[in-house]
Amino acid sequence: MAxxxxxxxxxxxxxxxxxxxxxxxxxxxxxxxKHDFNALNxxxxxxxxxxxxxEAEKMLLRAVEINPRSADAQMRLGLANRxxxxxxxxEYCFRSALDIDPKLADAHFNYAGLLASLxxxxxxxxxxxACIEADPRHxxxxxxxxxxxxxxERFEPAAAHFQQALQLRPSEPALMGLGHAAKAGGQLxxxxxxxxxxxxxxxxxVVAKKNLAELAS
Length: 217
Prior knowledge:
With 217 residues, the chain is mainly α. The chain is built from 13 helices and no strands. Helix 3 (37-49) runs parallel beside helix 5 (71-83) and helix 5 runs antiparallel to helix 6 (87-100). It is elongated.
């Protein structure tokens, strides 16, 4: 089987969540051509999914050496570095990715997440907003921005982003965030309804139970 066909088969496995088969496929391609950028970048991506950060870093470093202008590879190398706890190098990689492609939404998203974890909230806010400008349908960016705005006691815009996240990808964290924003903003009836809905969807949600008890007292 030609290298191109092997790579396509591995990608198909990867897309379908068959990670063992995909990894084996990428490694077969690299056994034939150790400089295959796509195989290196995709294997690095798969290893990130496995949280095998040290090996992912090795593959992505090789990918970046071959194609230093790949914003995607630079961003994924940043994720590997963050997973290894090297926040300085992670920030360098995220910034490099954005220098190459300022509209790469996931690079803005991952950089904003790093900034938030470092306590650089104002920069993180700008990063999530830049992500949403690049991709208005980025549900995770709306969700994370909602929680960051909640921390800054900006309840109305937080609620708006939680609502957007719920429309794009319904999730318990988005629903709970909306409830917290309503409660903190003094919209107590709305908060009760939201936490009641969260509890209905997940009877084991102890945070929803606690908030409902507080609102009933």
